[in-house]
Every structure is written in C-alpha cells, then in structure tokens.
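Researcher: I'm preparing a figure for a lab meeting and need a structural model of a single chain. I don't have an experimental structure, so a prediction will have to do for now. The sequence is pasted below. Please return the structure as tokens so I can convert it later.
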Amino acid sequence: MGGDTMDGTKRQRRGDTRQRIQDVALELFSEHGYEKTSLREIAEHLDVTKAALYYHFKTKEDILISLFQDLSRPMDELIEWARQQPRTLETKQEILRRYSNALADAAPLFRFMQENQAAVRELRTGEDFKDRMIRMVGLLKEPDADLTDQVRCISALFSMHAGMFLLKDVEGDPEEKRKAVLEVAIDLVTQAHGGAAVTPEAS
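Model: Understood. Here is the structure written out token by token.
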C-alpha cells in the first residue's frame, strides 16, 4: 500500500515538473518569441538539465502542442456538454459563461497565440483550434440564422478573445473585466436568438 502512495507521489512530482516546464516555456515564448526561444534556455530557467527536459518533451513543438491539448480538453468537454442540451437561449448563455471561465484559465496561452500567429499557423493544432471555434459558433447560432445573427454569434466569441488582450492595459479588477466582456457576449447571442438582451446574473 505504501508503494502505491509513493508511486502516486512520483506521478504528482512528474505532473508538477511538466506543468513548470509548460509555464516557463510559455513565459519565454511570449517574452522572446517562439522562434527565438531554445530548449536550452527553457532548461536554464528551470535550473534543470536538457536531459531532464527531454524526459517530458523532445522539442519546443511538443511543449506547444501539450499546451494546446490542455486548453482543448475543457473546450471539448464544453462542446460535448452543449450538444446534449436543448438549443435554448439559457443553454447558449451557459455555454458562454463556461467558455469565459475556460478562457480566464488559459489567458497566457491566448496572449501567446496573439503574439506568435505565424508559429501557431504552422502547427496542426492551430487548425484544430479553428475547427473548435467553428463548432462553438454552430452551437450558438440557429441553423437558419440570417447573416446579421451569424455575425452576432461569431462576434460574441471573438469579443471574449479580444477582451483578454484589449482590456489587459485598462484599469480595473480582472474579474470585473471578465464579467463585462461576458455580458457583451451574452447580449450579442441573446439578440441573435431573437430575444431582448436580458442578462441573467453572470457567474
């Protein structure tokens, strides 16, 4: 039984190391650019050998792909959950609330994506992300929606993305800013759904 606990602790430590590598790599990618950051620099910042880094990730691309996978998981879960719900305005508003929380957790990665668009475009994972966005829009808009309402639904998602970049230099509490962006997104989807823009209390 003690062996299980020890294995669990080892696994936990490995998980922590992987997380630290991701955090430091993302910080360096954002600061210096993806192309200009080397695995050696990442290892030096972590104060580990390159061999220790290789244990978890063989290339910079592996690190980046793992970051996208960690972001994709909550998105996939949200898409799967939404598909099983009735296509009501309440469901659409809840999709936006849950997505807003997922974005808040992934803010550093989104900033990296904004600043390193060329690197992201070259990765298959960038295409996968675009596919997920298309599926999200499909969950928010009605199948027979006119063009204006389709634009409202697309704008709702992209205003949530843009809000993370454009509001980071604006004075104010980050949580208040997140809620303000969420309220705008909910307003847009509510209008697209054919209702007055009444916003239930945002979580």
